[in-house]
Amino acid sequence: MMTEVHNTLDARNLSCPMPVLKSKMALKKLEINQILEILATDPGSMADIPAWSRTTSQELISSEELGPKNFRFLVKRLK
Amino acid sequence: MSKDKPKRMAIIAANGTLDAAYPPVILASTAAAMDMEVAIFFTFYGLDLIHKKRSKKLKVSPIANPAAPMPVPNIIGMIPGMTGMATWMMKRWMKSANVAKFEELRDMCLESGVRFIGCQMTMDVYGVKEKDLIEGCELGGAAAFLEFAMDADITLYM
């Protein structure tokens, strides 16, 4: 079953720390329980997006490596 | 992980070269995105990072910098123009790696509530006026910074 995505952040071709900063801004615009899709090419985001979700108490639904330098994350806004 | 009281990070930025400019604003903006309270104390050469004019002309020196991606012998680095060349090369490398500009990261710090404290004593030493600093800074001395840093979970000197 496809997870419903409420907004998509294209953070491709951005380096640390931009994917996290833009994710934060995009997530703030969502309602509680809505889901943000994040697309990234920065290999550091595989560690950074999960760390950011954990420390800010948001829910990381999935993190996928779709290919070389091609990452996709789903984060649900919990607070 | 986050409890009622937010985590706090206090940074002392004491250097004014282009390479030293990045770590404070990268960590501060990221910490703010992680719901932390952040303040940066800009002191000594670090004051250049919030100086309207001087922050536009940050440079990196090839002298005594063996970690540069393309190390230059010190005696070559002394030739006029080599600092400009090293600066140009660093900017080019950063751009090709899609790293955001220093000013952009600095703006994101201020937009996300990071406190910028300019060192009053440094300003007096260098003859820097409040109007010479970028918008959004506050001024203070060691005690003003330490009052914030006293409750910090992370304190960094850069």
Features:
heterodimer, A: 79 residues, alpha+beta, globular, B: 158 residues, alpha/beta, 5-stranded parallel β-sheet, 6 helices
Structural overview:
The complex is a heterodimer of chains A (79) and B (158). Chain A has one domain: Translation Initiation Factor IF3. Chain A has helices at residues 18-28, 45-55; strands spanning 7-11, 35-40, 59-67, 70-76. Chain A is 28% helix and 34% strand. Chain A has a 4-stranded mixed β-sheet, covered by helices on one side. The mean pLDDT of chain A is 96. Chain A has 2 helices and 4 strands; from the N terminus they run βαβαββ. Chain A is an alpha+beta fold. Chain A is globular and about 30 Å long. In chain A, helix 1 links the parallel strand 1 (7-11) and strand 2. With 158 residues, chain B is of the alpha/beta class. Chain B has a single domain (9-62, 101-157), classed as Hypothetical Protein Ychn, Chain: A (3-Layer(aba) Sandwich), CATH 3.40.1260. Chain B contains 6 helices and 5 strands; from the N terminus they run βαβαααβαβαβ. In chain B, helix 1 packs parallel to helix 4 (102-111). The longest helix of chain B is centred in the first third of the chain and has 16 residues, at 18-33. Chain B is globular and about 55 Å long. The two termini of chain B are 27 Å apart. The A-B interface holds A 13-18, 20-21, 23-24, 42, 52, 54-57 and B 1-2, 26, 29-30, 33-35, 97-100, 105, 108, 112.
Tally of structural domains of chain A: 1
Largest interface: A-B, 16 and 15 residues
Strand order of the largest sheet of chain B: 4-3-2-1-5
Shape of chain B: globular
Helix content of chain B: 25-40%
Major beta-sheet overview of chain B: 5 strands, parallel
The outline of chain A comes out as globular
Mean pLDDT of chain B: 95
Tell me how many strands of chain A there are.
4
